[in-house]
Amino acid sequence: MLSSRVLILGGAGEAAELGRRLAGDGRFAPVLSLAGRTRAPSLPPIPHRIGGFGGVEGLVRWLSDPGADLLICATHPFAEQMRRHAVEAARRTRIPLLMLERPAWKPEPGDRWTEVADMAAAAEALGALPRRVLLTVGQKDLAPFTAAPHHHYIIRSIERPLAESLPPRVALISARGPFAEEEERALLRQHRIETLITKNSGGDATVAKLAAARALGVSVIMVQRPPTPALDGVEVETATDAAGAMAWLEARHGLASRLRGV
Ligand code: NAP
Fold it and tell me: Which domains does the chain have, with CATH numbers?
């Protein structure tokens, strides 16, 4: 039986975890695709490619050459464009698609969350009085905060943000999770943070900041996720972790051989 060719659109930790599970499994021939935003990504021991496909058209082309039998979209829940492209490409090629998406965080007793729809609403929700803010939204979504220049921002991101996207009063911290609750509390205390702004990314790697904010009474502005893309005629199946994605793959193993007439 032929190996099933699997294209994994990566970006979330679950994609790397799935890659580690697939390494050495002869039933599957996986390729992990990354956008190339992070300079030193941690890669699982499977083949990978880096860089955009050139829009939906490019992804559709890739799915026929080099080719894939199964598509897994394991990008970050906020990678809205890539997720839309995956659904559209699956519709056009009829290749089965799984959206691998970890559950969103939910508020717990003691949390002081304000949930907002997007980054501009997050900047506005800070209000008129100057606040000390920890921003952990990634380097590409900072521009809306230039509209609220009266706050003092501590910006934590993996890659250094571009200077032109920054509000005037900032301190930059470059760090990559996972973070422990104790270090998150120390950070909030050290910078006298009053409000934390985060995307609702979900997952364990960066959840400690929420526990630390709860413990210290720090308010949280939580940017909600964009909805999972949907298209007429495409049944988008979902899994919440790498084990669920593995089960989905195993259920479809053999499909490749049947479709290719082997
Ligand atoms: P995006 O806006 O959804 O995608 C922009 C373009 O980047 C896509 O159209 C595609 O280019 C390319 N791209 C994205 N993911 C790709 C992948 N896995 N393989 C190949 N090309 C990819 O994405 P984004 O928000 O800029 O995020 C970029 C990457 O960082 C994603 O892989 C995402 O999972 C990861 N990430 C994002 C966030 C976030 O908050 N947005 C947080 C952590 C990690 P073409 O159209 O040319 O194919």
Answer: 4-103+227-259 (3.40.50.720), 113-223 (3.40.50.720)
